Amino acid sequence: MNGSEAVDAARLSLLLTELRLPAIKQLWPAFAERADKEGWPAARTLAALAEHEVAERGRRRIERHLAEARLPPGKSLDSFDFDAVPMVSKAQVMALVAGDSWLEKGDNLLVFGPPGGGKSHLAGAIGLGLVENGWRVLFTRTTDLVQRLQVARRELALEPGDRVGLYVGRLDQRHPKNCPWLLDLAAAWGERRQGLKLLLAGEGPDFGELQSRIDREGLSRRVHLLGHREPLSVYRAADLLLLPSGREGFSLVCAEAMCTGLPILRTRTAGTAETVVEGITGRSVDIDRQAFIRAALEMLGDPALLESMRPAAAAHVRQHLPFTHQLDQTQTLYQHLTTGKVPP
Questions:
Q1: Can you give the residue ranges of every domain in the chain?
Q2: What is the per-residue pLDDT for 155?
Q3: Are the beta carbons of 85 and 118 closer than 8 angstroms?
């Protein structure tokens, strides 16, 4: 390799690192040498390298997803004895593993049976198959989920019967987020009704002013400014996400909360229009202080309603707001802006 070729090789290595193509970075010298000897066209060389990159990414993705799935070791469909459990249809299980439409709809899969019947084995095997087919899963026990919820509520000083409203975002009236409405909500709840807790997770220039008002009006038992928090823990502890914004783009907080099964009360802003299905996954009201407080009181005062909205909220996000949907919308917008045409 002469000096010019060495410089090109070093530049290529840096470029492939920048483009995050580790498989091509590792393999290209050997492929280039073989291509030169055998006279491969450039397209064949590039295609071969790209195929290896795609395969390596798939392998790393499966490794990463298996690590986070926490599946029980050694539980696969190949080792499951279907003959010992004849009431379990192997064809049906294989359809479930393929992903089918049940995941996109957010349907539940319930497995019942006596101890030692293979429930955990089958659940783990289905999880493994889904990971291998590109899905992400988490294997956990119901008792663990309940304990995590209890820990989250305990860390936030919540009592078992508390109704918990949650706000996640900037504490900044300049945008405007209308956080003072939440303090008005706490005051409207009144001392005669116990058990309301409002959690405001976020930071911003209004933090001090809000805290001063909480102290001044004696709302510290009902309103807690949490500062910056990892959102998942507060989503788990809450019963209702409150979005009183006067202006809002696409709300990532809204989508995240709904993924955890949290219903939404929002003002009618453009950014959250497609996330909330009225009366099913939450409620929408005009950008009006009294209307928002009235709706919040009604929803927080009806635990059965909130509980009924949880599965619908999670299913709606999975079905209507997947990453591929966002990607398609972005591509459509890009094509419209660059060509003036909307794709069919």
A1: 3-64, 82-132, 161-327
A2: 67
A3: yes
